[in-house]
Amino acid sequence: MKAVGKAILAWAIVGLMGVTGATAAAADEGPRCTPPAVEAGAAVLMDADTGQVLYGKEERRRMQPASLTKIMTTLLALRRGDLTEAVTMPAQAMDRMWESTTVGLRVGERTTMEELLYAMMLPSANDAANAVAIHLAGSLEEFVGWMNGAASDLGLEDTHFQNAHGLPDRRHYTTAYDMAQITRAALEDPRFAQIAGAASHTIPATNKSRARGLSHLSKMVVPGAASYYPGAIAAKTGWTSSAGNCLMTAARREDRTLIVIILDSDYAVVDTAKLLDYGFGQFQRSSVRVPDINDKTVTLADTQGSTHKAVVPAAGEEVSFLLPSGAREDAVRVRMPDPEALSRGERLTLDLVLEDGGEDSWPYSLTSLDLVLEDPPPDQTAGIMGAGAGSGAALPGGSWGLAAPAVGGLLLAGRRGRRRARGHRT
């Protein structure tokens, strides 16, 4: 975002906190929402509509994604390519294809972009991924740059790609959370689910091959299969000896679409089914209406005493989220991050959280709004929402203040927003 001498408050549906190892507190007298135990090294359950995290286990830990990488490759192909355009298999696409999953594409073979995407997403063909990358970008290196640029555009700070297919490289990593966000972006294009959710597909005969029959490696999208999950609309498998078994699954029921990312699990299908059952069975769609705060401002003071004014452009927005069954909407609060100091371009996050106030209160992030500060800050203090607004009262942490103790009945409290953590077939 370009600095233009003001701070902009942008809506971003980014769930920041999982419920790892926690018992979900609903209402004081209501039912408790207990997440299942999963075996994966890392996992996340995310609402595709809002990005709300319903469950997380090491979801911010950097790990190898194996062929889940191809979700990003497919996303870029859908954005930058045409499904009907002809693609000729280049010699460079055969790089690292020994002892890896392919559909046996031959140098000079001609097919379409659509057929290559089916080859990538169903049997996880690495030769197809390379062919797509080189066709679109001119080289594997340039396409990798596109991948990393797209990750940056999505605000993903713990993802770095080194290839288009997911074969092992120490510089190639992501997190369960980041991969779920990439999947969210891909699902915005209905063609992604059409391809990634197909149980099977036939690539017509080409100039160098007979027709090829493809079957999806994830049976969660195959009706009649033992591991079929009702409502599953897309899936992607991955495996390398260093990454372990990885699985992306998206499922849709009634008013919600859920995404599960599993990294490094010997029980990826079981873990996925548990999390989807939890998401569909223990949460309900809810919302709060943010009062009309258009053209109002908040003033933040850093540790040096300087003030920053943020303009809030959203007016009367209704923020949707999934609420644990039995929880009360009046238990929803707004939390502010608590940075050590503010600086130009810093991203702060306002969390909508569920806090029931009970003994085992659950500070569960429902959704969030992102604040980006830009220079030059004004030398004045401004309020928000008019009546009832304070004048920069200190929040917990003492390093900064917000010129509004309350917004439409939603309590403002302080907390630091950002967290980081540590981390031949595909």
Gist?
This protein has 426 residues and is α+β, with helices and mostly antiparallel strands. Helices cover 19% and strands 27% of the residues.
CATH topology of the largest domain: Beta-lactamase
Radius of gyration: 23 Å
User: What is the H/E order?
Assistant: EEEHEEHHHHHEEEEEHEEEEEEEEEEE
Q: Which architecture of the largest domain does the CATH hierarchy give at level 2?
A: 3-Layer(aba) Sandwich
How many distinct helices? 7
**Parts with pLDDT < 50 across at least 5 consecutive residues:** 1-31, 292-298, 311-315, 373-423
Assembly level: single chain
The backbone outline, from C-alpha atoms, is: globular
Strand segment tally: 21
Mean pLDDT figure: 75
Strand order of the largest sheet: 12-13-1-17-16-15-21-20
The tally of structural domains comes to: 2
The proportion of residues in beta strands is 25-35%
Structural class comes to: alpha+beta
Kindly report how far apart the N and C termini lie: 35 Å
User: Mind telling me the CATH superfamily name of the largest domain?
Assistant: DD-peptidase/beta-lactamase superfamily
